[in-house]
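Holo prediction. Input below; ligand is sulfopyruvate.
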Amino acid sequence: MKGEHLESLRNLLDKVNFQKIERVDHPTVNYLLHKAIELCKPDSIFIATDDPGDAEYIRMKALETKEESELATPGHTVHFDGPRDQARDKENTRYLLPPDVHLGKHINYKERDEGLKEVIEFLRESMKGKEMIVCFYCLGPRNSIFSQLSCQVTDSFYVAHSENILYRPGYEDLCNADKQAPVFCFLHSAGRLVDGVSADVDKRRIYIDLAENIVYSVNTQYGGNTMGLKKLAMRLGVSKSLREGWLTEHMFVIGVPRDGESHYITGAFPSLCGKTSTAMLPGQTILGDDIAYLKKVNGEVRAVNVESGIFGIILDVNPVDDPAIFEALTKPGEVIFSNVLVKDGKPYWTGMGEEIPTSGYNFSGEWWQGKVDEEGKEIPPSHKNARYTMRLSELPNCDPHLDDPAGVRVEAIIFGGRDSDCWVPVEQSFDWTHGVITKGASLESETTAATLGKEGVRKFNPMSNLDFLAASLDTYINKYLDFAKDLPSPPIIFGVNYFLMDEEGKYLNGIMDKVVWLNWIVERIRGRVGALPTPTGFIPLYRDLKRLFAEKLGLDYSEAQYKQQFTVRVPQQLAKIERIERIYRNEWGIPEVLFKTLEDQKLRLEKARKSLGDFISPLELSQGALEG
Ligand code: SPV
Ligand code: MN
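Structure of the complex:
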């Protein structure tokens, strides 16, 4: 048995490439490659090592195959996904589960044998006439307790090129790894290409086989569906981490320097809800913008960035709101733009702070102002979910501990969503359990362009991780609650909401107000400011916000604004509790403490309402009113 796959590979690979694989000689990799080659029937195979020459070959081939085109600025290229392939496909992303495994109704799954049969049929001979590329990466810093080795097989040079930018190399690590070390595996084919884009998107499938740690992806190119190391590895990570007692989270990691020492904060937000922009606020360092592994080490929670680059949304990136990213995107360097507008070798995107040409080339092909799609809807110059791909090290504010094998100590966790009518802009939870339940597990957010489907629909999204939850909700919540509850000082949990509106549907906050909320959070971590208890958590005192608005933004923050933004909206809070409770009542195995914590919150709200009414101004709130 042993060595069988490697022997077969000897016949399937040329001498040079076989030697590269022979050095790895890992049973999981041998198995994956043997299976992938026999199934997909590529014309040729390229095994990439950590050699920069191999990365350059991939970059050149992405241009030669026209998956990418060069732009005027040196190092910049552009890639287009097809018009119907612009975001993550939630419907066709499924876990393959045997009939006796149930992960609950929030998990999109398919019966394993049936799903495997289907996706294997779509992958059959999918690489005929193409080259298969095999890349190795390390998720998390190398040589660390966080390191997770991975192997990507793809026929897209764009996917391989993107991953070379976004992830740390892993070939040498795999060569030196224990033969039992688990390897996350990804098999992707863009399928039939027309003009460089996947043509058969109706046969797009992304199937996650937890039993073998293999993810299959076919007939798609959009990064979130295809780059195995990104959201596909995240799903395998969630499953593995919950089995092993740690967490894989949809979180940024930032450092906030104070008195010569940095305070590290993680934040979980659904896509397109301000995660990257929060991670990029001035005066901070960015360690990660999307995916973090969290482990307990010597009584502390420590985090790493799974990635080392950003696959960021390029909407509203301009010199005023996102100066560091804007600068990195306009200087020479290795950057892939996707689904923007291109004219005369220059990329344009919505909200870039410059006039956008009235014609050019975009994800719909030749584009002109007023061009409509099949449904008669006007096509924007650049897609709302257009992206850029670049290394974090390109940014002046990149955190120095990005590759630290020990990770960084997490002092606070923020949960935020798109919530137009309920949560206040910032609030601290009472303790770990209260925070996990009323902030993380109760997170709701209105849908955005980051996934296919209708926008603006309120959706339950616990820890903003629901899309990637390779476990049942009860397992996730129980493990989360257990994770830090025995620690002497667990991270402090905060909720934020940048999207609160008044009755007329007008946003109550400016785009940069998040600077103030972040600074308040840091002052709370440092014990420098007090806070006002409300039925749902601790909110800032007016005087501290007034000072922070003046200091950080040069704005005069009025009492009227404070009142409007921090009023406890009792009916909306109660309605939220009811919605959330109903969801969990329909699940198995949810711990009693979740219902008890929601019930206690409801009682506090009802009690406060008796004396203070439906809409409780923070100016009226006092400890006495709550206790009375
Ligand atoms: C997100 O949508 O959450 C992203 C981009 O970070 S994707 O790769 O599509 O997941
Ligand atoms: Mn994300």
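Residues 311-394 form a domain with the Phosphoenolpyruvate Carboxykinase; domain 2 fold (CATH 2.170.8.10). That is the main takeaway for now.
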